[in-house]
Every structure is written in structure tokens, then in C-alpha cells.
Amino acid sequence: MKKKLLLLFVGLTTIAFSQENVKYAETIIASDLEKHLIILASDSLEGRETGKPGQKMAADYIMNHFINIGIPPYKGKKYYQKFKVKSRRHLCKCDDCDMSFMKKMLGQKKKIKGENVLGFIEGSDLKDELIIVTAHYDHLGKHDSLIFNGADDDGSGTVAAMEIAEAFMLAKNAGHGPRRSVLVMAVSGEEKGLLGSKYYTDHPIYPLENTVANLNIDMIGRIGDFHTDPNYVYLIGSDMLSTELHNISEAVNEEYVGLDLDYTFNKEDDPNRYYYRSDHYNFAKNNIPVIFYFNGIHEDYHKVTDTVEKIDFKKIETITRLVFLTAWELANREERIVVDKIEN
Predict the structure, then answer these.
(1) Which SS3 state, helix, strand or coil, does residue 314 take?
(2) Separation CA 84–CA 127 (nearest Å)
């Protein structure tokens, strides 16, 4: 009963603030997501490996999307945060993948150059605080004649982030922009050790102490091994640092979306260790509350068969709307969420 009352209260405060959120969430549609993903997961981008030409082409595509929807360069200067770091390891989430050639980039380190692509939507009266939405746009690249297109991993999350940016800009241009700022950041280097997000948190463009939350999207376009119905998403990390973030997430979903929120992997001691294995963790370890949106591993994970024709775009649409509506609430509520736990 207490939980239901809490969710009802949080839900009512969301509704009371504005009815505009649903209108802009509905601008996120499957056909636009598909249009972007057909390009990002095409053979011409050769798997988007960080440091390779395909990754640079993907970065340019995302940057041009930000330009086209009217997002100015961050701090009036540029869209890229460039980094040059040592790659560490291949972060495969399973033992059964086509990455035997990569398992040999183990024990060896080399300098790689990548870019995070930043789309900054400035807020109004609380603009110094911000919500960060992330997705990694890099993948495994091309090896011999094999192209790892990475449609689900993480083309699906990347196009979701692009559409979230557009929805916020549509709202802003119509006079309904967020109170807090929203940074939509496509990061690279994830497959080589969460490098792009680590570089950002080590060299933040905007102060980490002003960062309210990170919503990270990594693989939301397929049905994972343990589901048959697409109407679900795994949530990881939502209650690790902020009970309030978890309650807001639950209330937004209950009021507007109705997905099955699956917390199977939402444990620090989960043997899969998903909490530590995507870009949100670099924010969490800096005590910034996070939510990781994830559909789970499937038969094409890290294989050349992770291609666009297998993507469920209505699934991406639904989950993307949930992320947008959650970001909207976090950006527009009166008080920033409370951090009531500390990352060890």
C-alpha cells in the first residue's frame, strides 16, 4: 500500500507539471528511428569501430542530426569531445560470440582516437543542473571480410538518443523547453572499455556535481533470451543510488507507457555484472544516479548477424518514449532528486 501511494504521489506531480510531455513523446516514431538506423548500421560504416573511418562517419551523421534539429555547438564552439586514450579490453557480455580474433586486442594496449558527440539543450530557470542521456554509437568494426553492423548493439540506443534530442528541441522551440538542461551524448569507445564515457567523467564539459542523473540506453531493439513478449525492458541501477529516481521511473512508466519493467539483473552481485558493463557506470561511480535501459543478450549479440532487418522498431519507439518521459520529469520537477546511497 505504501508503495502504491508513493507511486501515485510521484505520478500526480508529473501530471500536474505539464501535459506537454505526451505530445512531444509522440513525436518519437518508429519510422524515424528506422531511417537513422538503416544508415548507422549499414555496411558503408564498416561496423563503427572506434578510431576507424566508419566511427568518424557515424559521428558526423549524429552531429549533422543535432545541427538539423537546431542544437547549437556546446559552449558555442563544437559538437565533439575528442579523446585519445589506451584501449583496455573487449567487453563482451557473453562467451559465445564471433570475437575470437578480438580475444587474441587482450593483454595488448594501444592508443585510439575517438569522439563523444554532444547535443546540449539549455534549460531555463534551472539551467545549471542537467540530465545526461547516453548511448554508445561505436561497435566492433570490420575484420577481414566480416562487418559487425551492430544494429541492436548499440545502434538501437543511438537512434533513441537522437530522437530524444529532437523531441526536447521541438518542445524548446515551441516554448516548452526543459527547466534543467539536457545533454544528449553519443559516446564512442564503449566496446574497448567504456572509454568515451570515462573520458567525459574524467574531463567533464559540465560539472559532475550539477549532473542530476544519467539515463543510458544500450540495446533496446530485440527480444532477449529470457523473454517472448517484446513489451518489456530490463532496468538496471535505478535504485542503486537514489530511491527517488527509482520511484519516478516506476510512476512515469505506470502513468504513460505500461512496459514490463524487469529488474532481473538489477543487483550489484549479479553474475552477469551488467551494472558495471555499460557507460552509465562511469557516472554511477561518481555518485550520479543512473538508469540503464537494456533488452538483454540474444542470439545475434556481437555477431555479424546483428543487422537492421531483425530490429523491432515499435519496441525501440516504446522504450525511447519511456526514457524521454523520465528525462522530462527529471528536468522539469521542482527539486532535483536526492542521492540517498553512495557508490563504494
Answers:
(1) helix
(2) 30
Residue 151's closest CA among 15, 2, 300, 252? 300
Rounded to whole angstroms, the Cα distance separating 165 from 184 reads 6
Q: Tell if the pTM clears 0.85, that is, is over it.
A: yes
Q: What are the pLDDT digits (tens) for 121-167?
A: 999 999 999 999 999 999 999 999 999 999 999 999 999 999 999 99
Q: Do the Cβ atoms of 105 and 145 come closer than 8 Å?
A: no
173, burial (CB in 10 Å: exposed 0-12, middle 13-18, buried 19+):
exposed
Alpha helices in the chain (DSSP H): 2-17, 20-25, 30-40, 53-68, 100-103, 157-173, 195-202, 243-252, 280-284, 313-332
Q: Which amino acid is at 189?
A: G
Q: Which sign does the torsion angle of CA 241, 242, 247, 252 carry?
A: negative
DSSP letters, 3-51, are HHHHHHHHHHHHHHH-SHHHHHHTT--HHHHHHHHHHHTSGGGGGGBTT
Distance CA 40, CA 252 (A): 30
Exposure on the CB side of residue 158, measured as CA atoms within 13 A: 33
Compute and round to an integer the Cα radius of gyration of the chain.
19
> Rounded to whole angstroms, how far apart are CA atoms 97 and 101?
11
Strands 180-187 and 126-136 come out as: parallel
